[in-house]
Amino acid sequence: MQERTADGVHRAVDSVDAGDRTELSFDEAVPRGFDVEASIADLRRGRRFDVRIPGGEDVEPLVGDRGEPVGRVVRRRWPLSARVTVSAARCRTPFRLLRLRIRVENTDRTTPADSPRHDVLRCCLLAAHTLTSVDRGRFLSLLDPPEWAAHAARDCRNVHTFPVLAGEPGKSDVLLSSPVILYDHPQIAPESPGDLHDATEIDEILSLRTLTLSDAEKREVRATDPRAAAMLDRVEGMPPEVFERLHGVIRALEPVRRPDEATADLALRWWEPGADAGIVPETDSVLVAGTLLSQGSRIRLRPRRRGTDAHDMFLAGRTGRVEQVLLDVDGSRFLAVTVDDDPGGELHQWYGRLRHFRPDEVEPLTAEVEAR
I want to staple 281 with a disulfide (CB 3.0 to 4.6 A). Which of 111, 187, 324, 360 is the partner? Predict the structure, then answer.
């Protein structure tokens, strides 16, 4: 951002007021897309694609209320270089299956290794996404693979990216891999009225938080880019009935099964503290793989790939300690767990904010295993 001085010279500043418009100086990423194509024969040999993005500079003059020049916006783009390597290898499965590997890496060699992060980011790809399609073939879900391919799916390594099936539900010829944790066939929530934050279930709280911005903060938001300004305008002009739609929605209902009288009585009394003296989470136990687990038992976490919190995948293979054995209203058992090496573990335990897993998502640890 450059301000025009009285003698016609431009000098760098943090912001420039141009009438009712404010322009701020900040860094931003520019979206770019590139297409690569490879045959199965290419993939088996491995193929490399070099990507080069030239730098450049754009200048936009700024004028005041009376049309007088007050400054200019100078947008400089740094050149980028990257490499995309694609390959495929046969998996040992009963049916024909190839493991596809796509590696995206920055190849800039002009920035010294000890440069500040601010300078390094200018020469790097940020939030790289890969959208892959296949002809006369299909991708298998890594979240819910068929049983015959489950072992091959577990062997896939995904570093800083999370591949999921994309496109229309029911189809499997498109794969999206991004730095964002998603489920297969991600969609924008139909309740979202447009491009609003992340267009998912937390739009309501983000919208309400946006409305608490001061007038000065809103002016700065509008000074960043047109998309942010349009998003703010949409939130401010949102009618009450749209906010109500953002509050929550039930996607599906399971049929209600008639419980027996004893089970119904337990379900009704469960929410009353001390209603059933026979249920004590701190002393109850559950049998897992021939081992009785209770408070203090050591376990290794094996979270399911589907039907659970997507963030649990980061805990796969980690060890922890059972704090409570819980009973749900439908008779299901859950283990409340603290994770080893969690910096906030003691605080979570004190607050009672524990992580919950089903018995089939944990593996008992014996003293011999722990010693290794």
Answer: 324
Tell if the pTM clears 0.70, that is, is over it: no
Q: What b/e readout covers 239-257, taking b as 16+ CB neighbours within 10 angstroms?
A: eeebbeebeeeeeeeeeee
pLDDT at 188: 79
pLDDT along the chain (372 residues), means of 10: 87 84 82 90 92 90 86 90 94 93 92 87 89 93 91 90 90 92 84 69 78 87 82 88 78 56 45 55 84 92 76 86 83 87 78 85 74 45
Same domain, 272 and 322: yes
Backbone dihedral angles phi then psi of residue 99, each to the nearest 5 degrees: -95, 115
pLDDT, residue 86, reads 95
- Burial of 139 (C-beta count, 10 Å sphere; 0-12/13-18/19+): buried
The domain of 214 spans: 192-253
Q: Do 341 and 248 fall within a single domain?
A: no
Please state the domain count of the chain.
Answer: 2
In a domain, 211, yes or no: yes
Strands 130-133 and 80-90: unpaired
Is 64 inside any structural domain?
A: no
Last residue of a domain, one of 235, 253, 271: 253
Beta strands in the chain (DSSP E): 2-4, 10-12, 15-18, 21-24, 47-53, 56-63, 69-77, 80-90, 98-106, 130-133, 162-165, 174-178, 286-288, 291-293, 298-301, 319-327, 333-339, 355-357, 362-364
